[in-house]
Amino acid sequence: MFEATSLNRRNRQVEWLFKVLFLLMTVILVIPVIIILTVLVVKGHGVVSWAFLTTMPTDGMTAGGILPALVGTIWLVAVALVASVPLGVAAAIYLSEYAPDNWLTRVINLAIINLAGVPSIVHALFGLGAFVLFFRFGTSILAASLTLAIMTLPVVIVATRESLQAVPRAFREACWNMGATRWQTIRRVVLPNAISGILTGIILEVSRTAGETAPIMFTGAAFFFPFLPQGVFDQTMAMSLHLYVISTQVPGVPEALPYGVALVLISMVLVMNALSIGFRVYLRGKKKW
Amino acid sequence: MPSDVSLPTPPPSPSARRGRPASVRHGNLHRRDLAWYQDKAVAAFVFVGGISAIVFILGIFVFITKEGMGFIVHTMDVKEFFTSPAWRPTFERNPTYGALALIVGTASVTGLAMVVSVPFSLGAAVFIGEFAQGKLRETLKILVELLAAIPSVVWGFIGLSIMSPLIIRLFDQPVGLNVLNAGIILGLMAAPIMTTIAEDALKAVPDSYREAAEAMGATRWQVIVKVVFPAAKNGLLGAVLLGVGRGFGETMAVLMATGHAINLPTSVFDSVRALTATIAAELGEAPYGSDHYQALFTLGILLFVVTFVINLTADLVVRGVRKGR
User: What's the Cα-to-Cα distance from A56 to each of A34, A51, A71, A78, rounded to whole Å?
Assistant: First the structure.
């Protein structure tokens, strides 16, 4: 049939070369993930045990477990979710279902992008100035969680907006034509069809919130506070800050201990991420439209 | 469905019409009035949610300005702030607030991170977006996402405990916490956002462009270089800008991996100190309301303004490419 000319062959060689080059680049980019996880597991698994997770730190944090940090992180994430999920979902509903295409909507979108882009330490300064000092919450779980909530708000908004907009317009039109109000349509048709996408976004937010350190440093997380928090006005330890403290601030920590803490922290985060990714893959397979 | 499709406003529902005859408002149709009020209440609530993002971004600006303003007005010597590398806020007599070393520190680490990360991120975006298919593509995307999921404090710990000994051994250096260490860490941290946005930009190029070029006999690679890159260049630029913003604002990893020494670096093996890290390290010790405390908030204002400009530019650049088509 057709004989490949030398030009054809050269072009194909060039293409193959670049394909391999880019594959290598991609692999070099993702290989650190695998190396990091391996190192953390190898060096940290000896430390992690049931007792490690359920006892208090002792000897100036050079021995013992991480219970208060673990519980503290759960508190911080839970309170942050209570604050950010309703607000974020409301914002997404507004942007997806109500917002006209005008300057205000554009400014809102810009604000969301910037909220996601403001450095975490600036969020910390804001949390200190606003929640700790101005609203007089003191350094507390409440102040830290609200700071985290504002910081991760864009995650919820973007994920929710995307899953709302993935619901076909025909679904809404059918409902409007039955005489339903806008809210009835959203409540009965749009939200049930988008709920799994929204959950995916919330899980992702949990994983982001659990790993953040800078925003909670001055707003509610303590270096060392060997009690379980009793309410939202208590200070608390947190996993992320605990890792920072024992790997840089405390002398005489056994080498394996920070690896153990890092392993627990990253496991929490990755389990959440895996859930979110698995959920999304499952949903894509299930989608009927 | 593309995410930026704006849904049309539904026609006002019958119940929303107020001028109806009184007879309609009673009896069976009474339920509609309740629904009407509910509808209005929800509309008001979600509107509040929508503008909350604006309120928060303004709130951030107002509160950090409020805390930092005293320093800017009374103490700050603008020339010293931007040209002197002497950041000595805790000196008893004559403290100086020169942020040059911090600005250079942040810039050098971010710069190196971009040198390391931009080619790889864009390369990965091209491979994932244009070459990879099926299972391989999904796996690579998930791995890139996992890269984004690693918390910054864990990255810092990796810089401290894995990278640093490695640099000491490989390059025979006395210290392993330096620009090189933080630059590589930061590059890896900024890579996922660049890869994702760049891949979106490549995906936004219509398939008809590719098909037209392929019909002319172009190979895959020729299509990418001659057609896809020129069409997606604004999106790719936006991706790089967002990566810069990400690196610029990173705190914990930079705090732990740079060595945190005030220094104008002359090589990648010098320790430096970043703007963000300075705030994180010193705010705990600065007495409330002192010059030092306010100076740290001033650094915060600087960070806020710079990232705001970067993000705004990135958004305009990316949106420009979408509008143009």
Answer: 31, 9, 11, 21
Comparing CA positions, the residue from B7, B185, B260 lying closest to residue A94 is: B7
Query: What residue in A sits closest to B277 (Cα-Cα)?
Result: A121
How big is the A-B interface in CB pairs under 8 Å? 307
**Do residue B57 and residue A115 have CB atoms under 8 angstroms apart?**
yes
| Same domain as B317, residue B238 | yes
| pLDDT for the residue B325 | 43
Q: Which residues of B touch A161 (CB under 8 A)?
A: 3
List chain A residues with pLDDT less than 50.
none
The Cβ of residue B17 has, within 10 Å, a number of other Cβ atoms equal to 10
CA distance B252 to chain A (A): 7
Identify whether the C-beta of residue A144 lies closer than 8 Å to the C-beta of residue A216: yes
Collect all residues of chain A within an 8 Å Cβ-Cβ radius of residue B219. 11-12, 14-15
| Domain residue ranges in chain A | 50-286
User: Is residue A275 within 8 angstroms of chain B, CB to CB?
Assistant: no
C-alpha Rg value of chain A to the nearest Å: 24
Nearest CA in chain B to A94: B46
Looking at the structure, do residues B155 and B293 belong to the same domain, yes or no?
yes
Distance from C-alpha of A240 to C-alpha of B252, rounded to nearest angstrom: 10
What pLDDT, on a 0 to 100 scale, did the predictor assign at position B18?
A: 52
Strands A57-58 and A63-64, by their bridges, are: antiparallel
Contacts of B310 (CB under 8 A, 6+ apart): A117, B241, B242, B244, B245, B248
Can you list the residues of chain B whose pLDDT is less than 70? 1-32, 320-325
Selected for mutation to probe chain B from A104, A126, A259 (highest B CB count within 10 Å) is A126
- A250 in contact with chain B, both atoms CB, cutoff 8 A: no
The pLDDT tens digits of the residues spanning B277-296 come to: 999 999 988 888 888 999 99
Cα of B4 to nearest chain A Cα, Å:
9
Q: Identify whether B116 is part of a domain.
A: yes
Boundaries of domain holding B224: 96-323
pLDDT at res. B263: 86
Write the CB contacts of A42 (distance below 8 Å, at least 6 apart in sequence): none
The pLDDT score that the predictor gives to residue B79 is 85
In a domain, B9, yes or no: no
In angstroms and rounded to an integer, the radius of gyration of the C-alpha atoms of chain B is: 26
Q: Is residue B290 part of a domain?
A: yes
A244 chain-B contacts, CB cut-off 8 A: 153, 156-157, 252, 256
Residue B240: give its domain's CATH number: 1.10.3720.10
Number of H helices, E strands in chain A: 12, 2
CA distances to A122, B17, B54, B229 from A131, rounded to whole Å, are 14, 43, 18, 46
| pLDDT at position A147 | 96
Q: Which residue of B has its CA nearest to A220?
A: B284
**Using the beta-carbon criterion (under 8 Å), do A118 and B124 form an inter-chain contact?**
no
CATH topology for A50-286? Answer: MetI-like fold (1.10.3720)
| Domains: count for chain B | 2
- In angstroms, the CA B154 to CA B222 distance is 41
Residues B276 and B245 in one domain: yes
Handedness of CA A207, A68, A75, A117 (dihedral sign): negative
Of B149, B160, B251, the CB nearest to A121: B251
For position B50, what pLDDT does the model report? 92
Let me know if residue B59 belongs to a domain: yes
